Amino acid sequence: MALIQAKYQLRLSRDDKWHMDRPHFHEDVEILLSLSDGGDFFIENELYPLHCGTLLLVGEATLHKSIANDAYKRYVMHLPPSALLGFSTSQTDFLASIRQAGHCTRLDQEQTQELVELFEQLAAPENSRFGSDIERVILLMRFLLQVFTSFETIGREEGMFSPEFARVAPILEYIQQHITEPLTLDMISSRFFINKYHLCHIFKSATGFSVIEYIIQCRVLKARELLRQGMRVQEVGEAVGFRNNEHFIRTFGTLTGTSPKRYAKEYLAGDRC
User: Fold this and answer.
1) Which of 30, 40, 88, 198 could form a disulfide with 58 if both were Cys (CB 3.0 to 4.6 A apart)?
2) Is the pLDDT of residue 7 over 60?
3) pLDDT attached to residue 4
4) What is the phi/psi pair of residue 92, to 5°?
5) Those residues with Cβ within 8 angstroms of residue 106's Cβ, 6 or more apart along the chain or in another chain
6) Which domains, from first to last, does the chain contain?
7) Quick check: 87 and 94 in contact, CB under 8 A?
8) CA distances from 40 to 56, 67, 147, 159 (A)
9) Burial zone of 94 (CB within 10 Å; 0-12 exposed, 13-18 middle, 19+ buried)
10) Distance between CA 175 and CA 186 in Å, rounded?
11) Which residues pair with 77 in a beta bridge?
12) What is the mean pLDDT of residues 151-168?
């Protein structure tokens, strides 16, 4: 049963000075509940101040970073899109809701406590008691309903606009839409009528990546998706724009810590999300 096999990563983090000042992105959907005041969370071209009860929803392959200078506590869950798809129905489509819900909402004290309790139950060690796996699936569904219903009933909080990121947003979109095609710095700068040295400067300043680094990251994200769908390693490398298989395997290993073949094998065996 697909629902029972849904995997997630959950952590409760407490750091005195927590920040991920380099923007990053990943293939999972991230749900973050802030339990402290202070700091900022950047999602693409918007900034969201962090408060106790701030609930953030970050879609897959979405650039984000966070900065908090004081003692900071938060719950973070990572869920692969395939898990959300497995829980979705025609009436309740979690993946579609991510695009519609917005990135941020603010819970009151009671709502925050309710979600904390669900987080803590999900963080409890699993056991082999009869029926406990089904109970955990039900608990995870309750958690997802609570999160997405909060965005429906409370409404989204608008972030503050970041003009620096807005300048490169069309370029990011273009790269993502053409990631399987040959892409060069000269090609992109010509497409957007911008000097390539200026492009490098504003892109790095806004995203933390060079243009080429970002292209490679996007190619590897796409490769992971195709490997999970069962495509052969050599076909995947060609499909996501690598010129030869050796380069693909080496780059994939550098960025993920494993080979494409092992990644696919572990995913099919249920050891990797």
Assistant:
1) 30
2) no
3) 40
4) -125, 90
5) 51, 53, 54, 55, 154, 157
6) 2-160 (2.60.120.280), 162-269 (1.10.10.60)
7) yes
8) 11, 5, 20, 10
9) buried
10) 13
11) 10, 31
12) 83
Give residue 215's pLDDT: 92
Burial class for 43, CB neighbours closer than 10 Å (0-12, 13-18, 19+)? buried
DSSP string of 111-175, one letter each residue: HHHHHHHHHHHHHSPP--STTHHHHHHHHHHHHHHHHHHHHHHH-PPPPEE-HHHHHHHHHHHHH
Burial class, 257, CB count within 10 angstroms (exposed 0-12 / middle 13-18 / buried 19+): exposed
Whole-number pLDDT of residue 8 = 60
Six token digits for residue 165: 């990121």
- Rounded Cα distance between 81 and 70, Å, is 32
pLDDT band at 109 (very low <50, low <70, confident <90, very high): very high
Round to whole Å and give the CA distance between 265 and 259: 10
Instruction: Look at residue 46 and give its three-state secondary structure.
Output: strand
Helix (H, G, I), strand (E, B) or coil at 217: helix
DSSP sequence for 56-123: EEE-TT--EEEEE-S-EEEEEEEE-HHHHHHH--SS--HHHHHHHH-SEEE--HHHHHHHHHHHHHHH
- Does pTM top 0.70 for this prediction? yes
Decide: residue 174, CB within 10 A, 0-12 exposed, 13-18 middle, 19+ buried. middle
